[in-house]
Amino acid sequence: MIAIRKLTECSLDQAVQVWNEGFSGYLVDMTTDPEAFMTRQAYEQLSPRHSVVAFDGERPVGFVLNGIRTVGGRKISWNGGTGIIPAYRGQGVGRKLIEVSLGIYAKEGVDTATIEAFASNAPAIALYESEGYVTRDTLLVLRKAGGEADAGVQGGRGDGRLTLGVERIGAASRYTLRHGTARDAGLLTFYPALGAWQAHWASLTAGESLIAFENGKPAGYALYKRVYGASGNFAGVTLYQCEASPENGDPESVLRTLLEAVLDGHGGASFSASHIASSRTDLLRLLEERGFQTVHELFWMTRDMTEEGRA
User: Fold this and answer.
1) Residue 70 pLDDT level (bands cut at 50, 70, 90)
2) How crowded is the C-beta side of 18, counted as CA atoms within 13 Å?
3) DSSP codes joined into one string, 156-214
4) Is the pLDDT of residue 293 over 90?
5) Can you say whether the dihedral through the CA atoms of 133, 277, 144, 42 is positive or negative?
6) Is 145 exposed, middle or buried (0-12, 13-18, 19+ CB in 10 A)?
7) What's the predicted TM-score (pTM) here?
8) What is the pLDDT of residue 310?
C-alpha cells in the first residue's frame, strides 16, 4: 500500500536514490548525488517539510519536491520536480503526490501554484491539467556556442569580468549601467511579480544584475549568472531575465545595450538563456540575431489556489 510521507522522513540516500530512479528515461539527464541534491535544495529554496515522498512499505517509489515563497505580497509555490520509479508509473502514484502537495499549498495559504513540464511530456501535462493547472506560457531554453565572433568586442575581458566598474555609459552615451546583486533587480518597481521560479532573483544565489539608467531613472535590467568549470575557469554566461521599463519609449535600445554588456567580449565562452517566455518576442528576436537557438521548450503552468480559484 502506498503511503505519502514528508521528505523530512526520508534519508538523504533514499532521497537521492528515488530521484535518480524517478527520472530514469527522462528527456534530459537528471542524475544527482547527495552533495548536488542538497545544493539544489538550498539554491532553489526547496523545502523538505513541504516536499513529499511516496513509500511502498519502506521503499521510496516517487516524490514531489516543493518550494513556497512570498513574492509581491503573494505566496507562490513551485513543484520543483516530480518523479516516479518505472515499476510504479501509471498506477496513480503521481496523482496522489500532486493532490497531497496541493493540500499542503492550501494549508500554507498559497495564492498561486506553479509548475513546468517539457512540452513533449504529454502524460505529465494531462495530469497537471486534470488537477486544475492551466498553461500560461511556453518557456524556452536557448544556447549559443562561443567562438571567434565574440572575441575582442568591447564590454568584457574574456575572463568573465564585465568592464563596468561602478557604472558604464552605453555605446550611444545614453544609458548608465550599474552592476549589482540579483536582489537589486528585484527591488525595481517594474520587476515582474510572477514568473518562472528558477529565473526569479531569489533562486539566483550567485546571480548578478545589470541595471540601465536613463536620466537617473531605471530603464531596464538584466539578470544573469556566470558559469565556471570544475577547475574554476570561466566557462560562460546564463541569462535569466532582460526587461525594459514600461515607461521607456525605446525598449529595443535598452535590451540591446544590456545584452551587449552582459554577453559580448568573452572570447570562446558558451552562452545560454534560461526560462525565457515565448511571449517575449522582442527579446527572443534579439537573442536569435546573436545566434541563440532553442534547445528545450517547457509549458509554464499555474493553478489559482485562492477561494475564487477553487470556486
Assistant:
1) very high
2) 25
3) B-SSS-BTTTTEEE-TTS--EEEEEEHHHHHTSTTS-SSS-GGGSGGG-TT-EEEEEEE
4) yes
5) negative
6) exposed
7) 0.88
8) 55
Closest among 301, 300, 271 to 287, alpha carbons compared? 271
Would you say 257 and 214 are in contact if contact means Cβ atoms under 8 Å apart?
no
Cell of 168: 558604464
pLDDT(268) > 80: no
Work out the pLDDT band at 174, boundaries 50, 70, 90: confident
> Considering only CA atoms, which of 285, 278, 281, 221 is closest in space to residue 248?
221
> Kindly report the CA angle at 198 between 196 and 201, in degrees rounded to 5?
95
Question: Given the C-alpha cell 511530456, which residue does it identify?
Answer: 121
- How does strand 270-277 pair with strand 234-244? parallel
pLDDT beyond 50 at 33? yes
Reported residue count of the chain is 311
Asked whether 133 and 115 are in contact (CB, 8 A), the reply is: yes
Q: What is d(CA 197, CA 208) in angstroms, rounded to the nearest whole number? A: 16
CA distance 268 to 145: 8
Listing DSSP states for 224-255 in one string gives EEEEE-TTS-EEEEEEEEEEE-TT-S-HHHHH
31: exposed, middle or buried (C-beta count within 10 Å: 0-12, 13-18, 19+)? exposed
Neighbours of 144 (CB within 10 A): 21
Give strand pairing partners of 5.
53
- CA separation, residue 253 to residues 174, 220, 277 (Å): 9, 10, 20
Q: Give residue 171's pLDDT.
A: 47
Instruction: Name the average pLDDT for the chain.
Output: 90
The pLDDT value given to residue 26:
87
The pLDDT score that the predictor gives to residue 230 is 84
- Sequence-ordered list of residues with C-beta below 8 angstroms from that of 196, at least 6 positions apart, any chain: 114, 116, 139, 275, 277, 300
CA distance 109 to 111: 6
